[in-house]
Design a protein that fits this description.
The strands form 2 sheets. Strands 1, 2, 3, 4, 5, 6, 7, 8 and 11 form a 9-stranded mixed beta sheet that branches. With 248 residues, the chain is an alpha/beta fold. The mean pLDDT is 96. 34% of the residues are buried. Helices cover 39% and strands 24% of the residues.
């Protein structure tokens, strides 16, 4: 029986600072597929050092549809979906290779350890963080959500034990920019779902988000970064419902 093959898919835009370490961690894969949505910082050129399957799209349909474009270009038996700020540890690479060689499961969730301003976060809303990323091709696709897309499949995923590293947020400016983008998208999702915004709702959701992240999920054990993240979670919830208030 032939050895099962693995495709790694990544979507990128202006990821020159991180994409090399991401792709360097998966050079052992049979195929790397990169879909770029118009980078201006040399990202495609960096990617071509690792693979000849670099595709540039003229538009940006959102995270879910763009990841499905990359998925449709993959040709291996198995697919590992990565973001540009993620890397596969050596233990995880070994575990993935052993898993796809002989497994009864179609989808696997990976444990992700994220860092914030250089600090690995092991409490609060960021931990534990298990994300379905490894799957048999044809058994899963991404949702069409423009942000916070999810992998859609039947049943429950099995779990891998080794860690994937996630260099999530490297500066406060990046954090604020992400928050603004995601709260706007979140407000639009609330509107599509028929949910209303309001100042009272914004305050209640914001307060609960802080208490959950900092106290109930023990974010305080991550030091000042844990406090900053809890405040960020509160602001995200607050502005999501406040922005919804001013949408038609």
């Amino acid at each position: 029986m032939a050895r099962p093959t693995l495709s790694v898919i990544v979507i990128v835009r202006n990821e020159a600072a991180l994409i090399a370490q991401c792709l360097d961690s998966v050079t052992w894969a049979d195929e790397i597929v990169v879909v770029d949505s118009g980078s201006t910082d040399g990202t495609p050129e960096i990617c071509r050092r690792y693979t000849d399957k670099v595709f540039v799209t003229p538009d940006w349909p959102g995270f879910g549809p763009q990841k499905n474009r990359a998925l449709d270009l993959a040709t291996s038996d198995w697919v590992l979906a990565l973001d540009a700020d993620e890397t596969i540890s050596i233990p995880l690479a070994t575990e993935i290779a052993a898993t796809i060689a002989l497994t009864p499961h179609d989808v696997y969730a990976v444990k992700r350890l994220s860092s914030f301003l250089g600090r690995p976060i092991r409490h609060g809303d960021w931990w534990p963080d298990e994300v379905p990323r490894l799957f048999r091709r044809g058994c899963a696709r991404f949702s069409d959500d423009p942000v916070h897309e999810r992998l859609v499949f039947e049943g429950r995923p099995a779990r891998l034990r080794a860690l994937m590293m996630h260099d999530s947020i490297r500066s406060l400016d990046q954090m604020c920019a992400k928050m603004n983008h995601y709260t706007s998208a979140g407000a639009e999702r609330l509107a599509r779902a028929g949910k209303r915004g309001g100042l009272g709702k914004a305050i209640r959701h914001g307060l609960w988000a802080f208490l959950r992240a900092y106290f109930f999920k023990r974010g305080f054990l991550d030091g000042r970064e844990g406090f900053i993240l809890a405040v960020s979670a509160a602001e995200s919830a607050y502005y999501r419902y406040l922005k919804r208030l001013y949408l038609p």
